[in-house]
Amino acid sequence: MEKENKTKGIVVGIVANLVMVEVNGPVAQNEICFITLGDERLMAEVIKVVGKNVFVQVFESTRGLKPGSEVEFQGHMLEVTLGPGILSKNYDGLQNDLDKMEGVFLKRGEYTDPLDRETKWSFKPIASAGDELQAGDWLGEVDENGQPHKIMVPFKMQGVFKLKEIIGEGEYTVDEQIAVVTDENNNDIKLTMVQKWPVKVAVGAYTEKPRPFRLLETGVRCMDTLNPITEGGTGFIPGPFGTGKTVLQHA
Q1: Of 3, 102, 130, 155, which sits 20 to 30 A from 178 (CA to CA)?
Q2: Which residues of the chain are in CATH 2.40.50.100 domains?
Q3: Alpha-carbon distance 59 to 240, whole Å?
């Protein structure tokens, strides 16, 4: 959840993509901020906090940035947006939809919505009114490219909830309300098909986590030979900006 009164700051030092900011309020480790550069807003992440001075890493070029530029902190970590459409998109490391690019590269300070807010998805309810649910439980599913995409109770929700109502089978956008759950204090919470989750926080909403056992054949010889990955496993490609990490993912 974002802060109501966001912490502000001023750029006081710049070394390539490392920027030092003097802030006027509390800031958390790994918090996301935006630096104003003319009409552009550059996304950055807090990597170190020392008193009123905060060191942030900017995710793109800082060319033209000068001391005195304004900074606004968002009150949350770098998040991934989860919902129907995510399985059929091509993203960069900040979950920008690469299919929405104009030209070969995204312009500096340009960020795209990771989901299509206008597309309607065929939703089929799985849970029923009166069911008791927890984070990660299935509310329903939509068909995405032949795959059953499960719509879950948001991972951030803690405790046991009672499903008060759920929408019937039909076609809906990701932002339309599909269900209402009631918490232990009888507060109603409206749910859509979209949720957000911090990328650096492990998801714990599961009862069992099977170990991967089957090799994923990528078709890229250097990966299959030197660094094989299993289906359902995790891999990463370290490297600085512009070295071809995203290109390799699309190979």
Answers
A1: 3
A2: 79-209
A3: 11
Pull the structure tokens for residue 151: 């719509």
Q: What is the value of pTM for the model shown?
A: 0.78
Contact 173, 3 (CB under 8 A): no
Q: Can you give the pLDDT at residue 231? A: 84
Contact indicator for 129, 147 with CB cutoff of 8 Å: no
Domain at 79-209, CATH class: mainly beta
- Cα 100 vs. chain centroid, distance in angstroms? 17
Sign of CA dihedral 21, 58, 223, 96: positive
Q: Where in the chain is the domain with CATH 2.40.30.20?
A: 8-77
**Which two three-digit tokens encode residue 78?**
């770098």
Average pLDDT rounded to a whole number, residues 187-197: 96
The answer to whether the CB of 162 falls within 8 A of the CB of 181 is yes
Q: What angle do CA 8, 12, 14 make, to 5 degrees?
A: 115
DSSP 52: T
How many whole angstroms separate alpha carbon 243 and alpha carbon 247? 9
The SS3 assignment for 222 reads helix
> Which residue is associated with the tokens 């089929």?
124
Among 63, 91, 59, 52, smallest CA distance to 78 is for 59
Q: Left (φ > 0), alpha (ψ -120 to 50) or beta: where does 88 sit?
A: alpha
The tokens describing 120, both together, are 């309607």
DSSP, res 109 = T
The least confident of 54-58, 78-82, 158-162, 245-249 is 245-249
* Residues 166, 119: Cα–Cα separation, whole Å: 20
For domain 8-77, the CATH class is: mainly beta
